Amino acid sequence: MNISINENYKHIKETYLFSEIASRVRKYTEQKPDARLIRLGIGDVTLPLPGVVVDAMNRAVSEMGVKETFRGYPPESGYPFLKEAVVRHYKDNRADIDVGEVFISDGAKSDIGNLVDILGNNEIIIPDPVYPVYVDSNLMNGNRITLITGNKENGFLAMPDQIASAGARVIYLCSPNNPTGAAYDHGQLRTWVEYALSTGSLIIYDSAYEAFVTDDIPHTIYEIEGADRCAIEVCSFSKFAGFTGTRCGWTVVPRKLLSSDGTSLNKMWLRRQSTKFNGVSYPVQRGAEAALSAEGIRQCMANIDYYRENASMLGDTLSGKGIYYTGGKNSPYIWLQCPMNMNSWDFFDMLLYDANIVGTPGEGFGKAGEGFFRITAFGTHESTAEACGRLKELL
Length: 395
Ligand code: MLT
What we know:
By secondary structure, the chain is α/β, with parallel strands linked by helices.
């Protein structure tokens, strides 16, 4: 062929972090087919969908098989019944948003990756370590990225005073954080919102793990006064309702968000989505609506409590070994310092080869993640208990 390509792809790693891990694990299991692996790597849930969700999806599937209730293309930004459920969910978290500001999608990852489509060539601020999609999708667009470091000293919570000079930027924040599990409190998030408002910056706020919040800290950036003038929030049913395989999420783009020339970001996102995305299937949206009902929230939170117990088992094991870690409290992720000053890929190999445990090397989340390692609490109780036993022996 005689075509050119997006040269920016030459600046990203050849494989996405979790694909790289899957391929290393595949290689290992080819050599050791009998290995009893415990997968605490990618943050994938293990409990089945809550019953209330399954019932709602079954009913919706049946409706699709009947002439009178069959539905074709869904509305591009989601069915009103689900958008209204999302608005009520925000009200419960003391945040006021409008139905027209909610966009239903097939998950937070897609929206985070796609938001770059509506933004120009801004300087991008990304805390390091962080979920790799922020960096990769901006590199794919040729954007200039400045990393600000999260470390032991700042509790893995980067703050605006780490940004060298004032000016409008696009800032990615994830709280509770993937991978470190650290979470901003109200004061810290207020500092970010004030910074964004005073510099004309935009915050892209990833709240995919908000359901794990236990302390009195924000579930959404819109709990902070003024955030509707400077922040887009992306959230997901994946971790809250077990939708990793079902796929549904949402993004809030407040109407007050205007670019430097007064263009509405809400209108641009609607234009982008209606052109490049055809919506989420009706049964999935009914399932998501059910997850946000009072009974749905009760069932989802019971599952989250189950994962929390795993987190405390893992945390106790690490504490017992004197290993430093963060997370596990407001988050399903435990972020530990690799023992014996090992680098994170060496530690990955050691856990895989010597304990048959799969985790995620901190370096995969950025340079500042080197020397650290992420394990998830999304396993079953049995596999987590077994992993704790193996860790106690190995470390
Ligand atoms: C992770 O393990 O970081 C997440 O599961 C990835 C994702 O949500 O896309």
